[in-house]
Each structure stands twice: as structure tokens, then as C-alpha cells.
Amino acid sequence: MQLHLDQSPLSGHADTSLAHIGRDSQAFGGLVNVPVCRGSTILSHNLEQWEARKLPSNPMASYGRFGNPNTRAFEESVAQLEGGHAAIVFPSGLAACTTSLLALVRTGDHVLLSDSVYGPTRQFALSVLARMGVEVEFFDPCLGGNIRHQVRSNTRVVFLESPGSMTFEVQDTPAIAEVVHGVGGFVVMDNTWATPLYFQAFEHGVDISIQSATKYIVGHSDALLGVATANRRAWDLLRDGAHALGQTAGPDDLFLALRGLRTLSVRLRQHEKNALHLAHGLLGHPAVAQVLHPALPDNPGHALWKRDFKGSSGLFGLVLKPMEREQLSRFFLHLRLFGIGLSWGGFESLALPVGQPVRSVSTFSAEGPLLRIHAGLENAEDLLLDFTEALHAACCRSPA
């Protein structure tokens, strides 16, 4: 029960599209939003209707696991935003990543992943894929077209995450895609940071674009959800893989995701504004060694970001100058507006100590603590003041 219409990228302004996609008020008695549709069994009124609902690819499609009005509205909306052929929903962002990989690979295939990929995706590849007889290798996220030296005739998938998790390297997606498609491989990308509003993955050669909808789509830190959108070439493999693994999502979470879509562009603008205000305000701070944000002109990936992206989000990295653990503890103790917590993309600001990132072929070393910062929707000046006061408390010799 998936969308098979020919989708196109956003037409008109994103604010307008987001307010209207995935809604059919007349189908639900004039209700503005698609109501929560809970159910597993879908009855047919007669034998002819039962047989008509069967699909060649899925004869058991008339069942709640394969979708309801909430599922279809969300998947159709995301596919339209992404500019892809069709989308399928998952119970988490990680499930979208892992199922997309499983759907494409076979024993004996070679898979390349960006060395800055999301940690759980890395672990899945090294454990599950490797155990299946898939050869897993990592590449330097800054390699660009030089990935040709690692791509083989049996390279089935190259998995990107741009900017990279924790360290925010920007990958040259079109150059990588050209090489991968030359050997018949697929390009899969985690597009959660930019969303399709700020990066149109299919225009840059991606075959499957993944979002952790838990983050910016839901936007309120109250639901777990993932979604993967495919082009026509990859769609049948992605759909069949998801169905074979029994992947689905609950209607209540889907309702929250559809709600979040309506304000996605408005929230992203504020997240971007606040993050840039923070990033610029922390440049040159005596306690800050490096600000990792691709929209900053001095960032190594800035040129690629400026060429390929339409904006930036609220997430970036920060390397502090060396400090004792007691100082770092004091810093977090004095933060009033930033919480310590996993995930991001909600209305709240977060500051997370992430330690030294795991690397296999590239290098990233920081002498001081590495933090992942998410700028929420609070006032930008309040956020900067809170952060700088906490840094002052950490660097002050006498405890406050």
C-alpha cells in the first residue's frame, strides 16, 4: 500500500507545500488533519474486493502492517519533499538505515561507508553485514571523486552521511555518485541534518535518501520514526526488503510526524539562525579551539556546502581547549538552557560530550573535549549568553 505516483520536487515555496501535502480533508469529514487510524485487520466486503486488493509484489497487502491513511499520508508527503519515486516508513532512523542496507546487499558484495557515519550504522555494518559475508570498508569523507580508488566491480552500496556525524565533514555527493553508478552500485545517504528542504538528495545522484524523522520532522522530541525515500531504480528493492523484515510504524507516531511536517520549514529557519549565532559567537572564544560548522567560511567543507546545500540546521560540533574533567563537569553544571541528552532536532537545545570519534581510515584528533551542540528554538542571545557564562565558570579557577 505504497505510493506509486510519479513524484516531483517541491513546487512553489516550501512553507506552502508543507501546509498542504498529505492532507485530504474531504476524505475525513472535513477534518484538517488525517485522524489517528488504529487497526490491524482490514476487512473486505466480498471475495472480489479481497482479490482486487492483492498486489503482485505483496498478495497480503490488505493488512495494517502495510499501511493505513496515516502511513500513506506521511510517506507520500516525504516522497514529494525529497523529489523521489516513493517512500517507506520505519520505527526509527536506525531501522531505516539498516533495512536500506539489507535490502540492497548480497553475500559477496562490497560496501563502502563514510568514516564519519553515525555510530550505530557503523556498528551494524561491522557486525551484521560482515557476518552475512558482505565486505565492509570505510572511506575518508573528504575523498570525493578519488573514491574511485576504493570502488570495485562488486561495490554494491556506498553509504554517505553529509555532513558527517559528530565532525560535520561535507561529502562531494555528485562526484561520489558518478563513480558508484559507473560500476552499477547504489548511493545511500543519511539526509537527516539538512532534510530535503536544504539538500535535494536525488538531484545530486543519491538512490535512497534516509531521514531520522525523530529529529526535525517530528520536531518535539516525543516520537521515534524513520523514513527512506528511493528513486525508481532502488524502490522495488527497498520496499521488498522492508516488507520482508516486517518493518512498520504506529499511527500515533505517524500523526505526530505529520503534525511536525506542517512547521518544518519555519522551525528549521530558526534552528539555523540560532546555530549560526552560536557558532559565530563562539569563534575566537578563549576556551574554544574549533567550531565545526560547514556554513562557516573557514570550515574545510564550506565550498561544497555552499555549492550543494540550500541552508544549514541547528546541529554543529565544538572542540574545547584542553581542560580537566572537573572543569568540564562545572561547565555542564552551569548550563541552564542546554540539556545533556541523545537525539536532537527538537525545540530544546542540547550539548552532548561525545568523546573521541571512532575512525578507521581518516583522522580526527582533538586535544580538548568534543561537544555536539543542537541549537533549539530559544532566543539566540539567551543561548549564547548561557553558553559563554558556563564556559567562564569552567575556566574560572575558583568554583562558582
- Largest sheet data: 7 strands, mixed
- Total helical segments: 13
Straight-line distance between termini: 60 Å
Helix/strand order: HHHEHEHEEHEHEEHHHEHEHEEEH
Task: Find the count of extended strands (DSSP E, 2+ residues).
Answer: 12
In terms of quaternary structure, the protein is single chain
* Strand ordering within the main sheet: 1-7-6-5-4-2-3
Structural class, from secondary structure content? Answer: alpha/beta
Q: CATH class of the largest domain, please? A: Alpha Beta
The CATH superfamily of the largest domain turns out to be Type I PLP-dependent aspartate aminotransferase-like (Major domain)
Shape: globular
Q: Please tell me how large the radius of gyration is.
A: 22 Å
Describe the structure.
The protein has about 400 residues and is of the alpha/beta class. It folds into two domains: about 15-265, Aspartate Aminotransferase, domain 2, CATH 3.40.640.10; about 265-395, Aspartate Aminotransferase, domain 1 (Alpha-Beta Complex), CATH 3.90.1150. The radius of gyration is 22 Å and the shape is globular. It has helices at about 15-20, 45-50, 70-80, 95-105, 120-130, 175-180, 195-200, 230-245, 250-260, 265-280, 300-310, 325-335, 380-395; strands at about 85-90, 110-115, 135-140, 155-160, 185-190, 210, 225-230, 290, 315-320, 340, 350-355, 370-375. The strands form two sheets. The protein has a seven-stranded mixed sheet, sandwiched between helices. A five-stranded mixed sheet has the order 8-9-12-11-10.
